Amino acid sequence: MTPQPFAATRRHFLGQASRLGLGAIALETLLRGQASAAPAAKARRVVYLCQSGAPSQIDLFDHKPELAKRYDEDLPDSIRQGQRLTTMTSGQTRFPVAPSIFQFARHGQSGATVSELLPHLAAITDDVCFIKSMHTEAINHDPAITFLQTGAEQAGRPSFGSWISYGLGSDNENLPAFVVLLSRGSGRPNCQPLYDRLWGSGFLPSRHQGVKFLSTGDPVLFLNNPPGVNEAGRRRNLDAIAAINRATHDELGDPETLTRIAQYEMASRMQTSVPDATDLSDEPESTFALYGPQARVRGSYAYNCLLARRLLERDVRFVQLFHMGWDQHNALPKQIRGQCRDTDQPSAALVTDLKQRGLLDDTLVIWGGEFGRTVYSQGELTRDNYGRDHHPRCFTLWLAGAGVKAGHTHGATDDFSYNIVADPVHIYDLNATLLHLLGIDHERLTYRYQGRDFRLTDVHGRVVREILA
Predict the structure, then answer these.
(1) What are phi and psi of 79, to 5 degrees?
(2) For the whole model, what pTM was predicted?
């Protein structure tokens, strides 16, 4: 019987080559044109600090001092404009304005306004670009964070890190191109769960999915050989499995078979490279002091920020941190203090550390959540306590590093931090801009699946050139 091979395309071949450090060749073909047609890359690597649950822009970044005069007033209909509500506040008879109880001040030569909750970020505002006009369609957490990470509200698309692994490959063949680190916040430790599909490869070859490092036991499952198995025996097993897989590929031509061979070999190399990367014993006391008191606590956000720096300096292409606990529907003043204690010093330390090591010039740092929070209170409002519901119409995130205009604030919202009044930036626009900084034209990085060319920005998106250095 004549074999019916799968379509082993040029893209699959060059995707395999990119794992071996030939990313520039792969990208040239992916873009279906001359290399000169692609934007010049500013960033070689990315660290994405995803604040799961949606930080309140009103209490952290988007200062609205006049709201103090409107305490407990009903939000005007002219501001809400009939916006759809979640089931958590749709039953409220009124929407009382809840001004932030936290103090704000301007910092640095840029004069960026930051809450008292973020003193360490305040100290590095001249290295940061704030986007205060982010917006999205999704109003609930799962579709919103899926949209932020994959460019679609429905599950099944490749994640941002997977697209980068696919397009650029890895500069270190001994570590994955895409690593994921999780931490649980002290604000609401048991709020919105995270799913592996948020760092999944979707319909891309599975070797592009994120590799999750664990906070207990071995950093990666089965990192150590089982009892009774030595290195020579493991090598013989790997060679035998590879021979079977190669025979299967020769018969069927399925590119996923090559992926299995590559992943077995990667797993073998990781037995040495991962313990080296995750061993913090060679870090000086000054580094732990920089990242804060939780930096030695494995699985904490501070520990993960420090580990992210170690991975980035070992040329891991994309490091994704997820920190849970930002979903403050009630008791916001208490809960958000805990979240900021978790994240403020380590986030600022990571930027500072990368800058001191000369890595910030070609590393892109992203900090933000999936949407914003409402100006009106969810539930009971008092002078020292309130909650906030989901708000997709405006939120704030910040960027730092390669190609980003430092000390810049982009976009503005109305007096209620409810509607955008200047320079809106959609999720698609953000992703188009981030890809641009990595030297990728977002309209050309595509993958054909089920008869359609898919991309991270779907059929939308523009590069926000105003935030580029």
Answers:
(1) -90, -45
(2) 0.87
